[in-house]
Input
Amino acid sequence: MIRGGMQDWPLRVHTILDHAANVHGRQEIVTRSVEGPIHRITYAEVSRRARQVTAALRRLGVQQGDRIATLAWNTWRHVEIWYGIAGAGAIYHTLNPRLTDEQIAYIMNDADDRMLFTDLTFVPQLERLRDSCIGKRQIIVLTDRAHMPQTGLDLLCYEDLIAGEDPETPWMEVAESAPVGLCYTSGTTGAPKGVLYTHRSNVLHSLTVQAAGVLGFNALTSVLPIVPMFHANAWSIAFSAPMAGAKLVMPGARMDGAGLCDLLDQEGVTFSAGVPTVWIEIINEMRRRGWKPDRLERVVIGGSACPEWMISTLEHEFGVEVMHAWGMTEMSPVGSAGIIKPEVAQLDEAGRLQLKLKQGMAIYGVEMRIADDEGRSLPQDGKASGRLMVRGPAVVGEYFKGAGGQVLDEQGWFDTGDLATIDELGYMQITDRTKDVIKSGGEWISSVELENIASGHPEVVEAAAIAIPDEKWAERPMVLAVLREGSQLQPEELRDYLRPRVARWWLPEQIRFVDALPHTATGKLDKKVLRQLYGGVMAQ
Ligand code: ADP
Output
């Protein structure tokens, strides 16, 4: 057999930071620090400090494959430790602080984390977790000596820890197939399960995601990831921004609309990314101020379905282009994005808006198909809805420690748990999650579609559709909606709005207006809670 003639250059995560330091060394990471002030640092400096982290971890006895937990906001220090941990051959394990204490304890124990890096904000939470999971684990607080908190916990100060270390410490030479990151699914579908990313999967995924057709980063882009690093790899941004030499703007602990708007404006942010709920806050804030952050051009919205009003408000009221994307922790996480094809570019405003509501096309490195319950492929005609199956180099092959057993079918397809259509052009649209679909009289009602349509009403800010029991039809839809401030809308008026827009049997049996809807730790509608609250309501 003839051999290829090219170099064997392992795709390691820390090569991304090396590249940023060598080629874009003066580019900045700007953070609203947890301590308060705005902090600025360059990729060149971050690279040197990440190598100090690698050295410190070695000194503390960290071995290849050890899990190192992080319970932290988006900051330059969090970026440094990801790369420093990777460079030590260990595995960064992001913990989501919005989970309950019990869930965090379960996840830390399951992951068998060796130590934990954390922000000042979370020290009280760790005090509560001392007995259930901290035990003998070393905690390192991401701050300097002056800000170290008073507590009964045995803490190390991050700046002291790395201060004396060599900023030219070499990275460990691990194989590209070695594990480097661990993130647990948020448990909306059963006990949380760990997804163990490899150096190779992270590098390939970031290469694809930063490309022109998807996030489209370059050295002039200023990126503010609102999506936290503890939520599905921050959609790759801590890798894809330095890869492209883009400026990173990190919000730290200030995740409110006003704080984010200030930072977007002051740092000339051109691109941002987050789940729909944070955009509700930002839109409210922009309306209050009567302006949008000056240079903001494009945002990616995903994690849950982006409602129509949000796309049209951002695009028409504020002139910010919206790209709708879909993915999951198990896919590193980006799977599809609203890439504009020539056929779509020719459409009028209304037609383009309808396409933007779809979750977009598979990005390179993701094979996608829809299948029936027996695994047979369904037609891609925009009508047939089936199980969304995916395959690719950054898609999970098995969960951490084999949890849940075999997760791929014989051809290597992973069942996402989502139901979707794919149209002739390749645009995929999520119709539901398998467990959220409303089964009325043997027919399926898409809860996501009902939510989309209900939130199209100008007075509705957010809507949730769930199944409630019904003697005749087994299940019937109920819609819960949050209204705009001061709205006088009546449930009957919302039903009248829905009537011409949905099939007759899709009309919600019950409509209730609520002050707020519950969300999961990753910002999705928490239908588990809604079903607990309203599942006992009889349709009639
Ligand atoms: P978990 O699966 O633990 O809830 P993830 O953050 O991995 O958490 O969420 C993945 C799920 O989120 C997808 O399977 C899908 O149901 C939903 N999702 C993500 N993006 C979108 C989107 N743009 N539209 C609709 N649903 C989405």
